[in-house]
Write a structure and sequence with these properties.
Largest sheet: 5 strands, antiparallel
Order of helices and strands: EEEEEHHEEEEEEEEE
Helix content: under 10%
Number of helices: 2
Strand content: 35-45%
Structural class: mainly beta
Radius of gyration: 17 Å
Length: about 220
């Protein structure tokens, strides 16, 4: 796993080089066991992003031009009016947005995965994938069924959805659905779905065992 570099998500355009190692470049996001650099993730329990506005960058093995995620979201007709209306800085100029860069649609230009979080609890409110044709970005995936968080994992798109019991607090999910999507040349098709149920007994460091695993050929 390559070392991360802390940056802030704002409304400025950046250009960044990359170091060796990893398969994607990330601005922020929760920790998982894929080659993209992760940080600030406790062992055990559900995937949870760090505080909004803080982020890490990992390697993509090539030159990456960072996008302005705020402008991208606000100009996207596929992003709901509610998300656009609530898209404001949590503090100062720090927006609750995580951005990952990596090749998951087979294009010549790296794709962009954008997650919009909540300032209050950092849970995902919307996940989007943007594909570039060299001149502009097109939204090729959107999921606004919160809580949701999308990541790049070895060339696939992995979407995590915490599951909650009745009246459960955001910090106390009863399980998690993890859905793997793969680009088929035109869109993302579901390849695998794993449902995990967490024990009611608190046991630090223990990962829940998958309850259901379904693969699509």
């Amino acid at each position: 796993m390559s070392a991360g570099t802390t940056v802030l998500v704002g409304t400025v355009l950046f250009a960044a080089g990359c170091s060796a190692g990893g398969t994607g470049l990330r601005d922020g996001g929760p920790a998982r066991t894929d080659p993209v650099a992760r940080s600030n993730q406790p062992s055990g329990g559900t995937t949870k992003p760090p505080a909004p506005g803080h982020s890490t960058a990992a390697s993509t093995g090539g030159q990456v031009k960072r996008v302005d995620p705020v402008a991208l979201l606000k100009a996207d007709p596929k992003v709901s009016a509610e998300i656009k209306r609530d898209l404001k800085p949590c503090t100062g100029k720090e927006y609750p947005i995580d951005v990952s860069y990596g090749k998951i649609t087979g294009g010549a230009v790296v794709d962009v995965v954008v997650n919009v979080l909540s300032c209050s609890d950092a849970l995902g409110r919307g996940s989007y994938v943007y594909r570039s044709d060299g001149s502009k970005y097109e939204n090729v995936f959107a999921d606004e069924q919160k809580p949701v968080y999308a990541e790049i994992d070895r060339g696939d798109l992995v979407v995590s959805k915490p599951v909650y019991g009745h009246d459960a607090a955001p910090s106390d999910p009863s399980g998690e659905d993890v859905i793997t999507y793969r680009w088929n040349g035109e869109r993302f098709a579901e390849q695998d779905r794993v449902h995990s149920e967490y024990s009611n007994v608190y046991n630090p460091g223990m990962q829940p065992a998958p309850a259901v695993s379904q693969k699509n050929d």
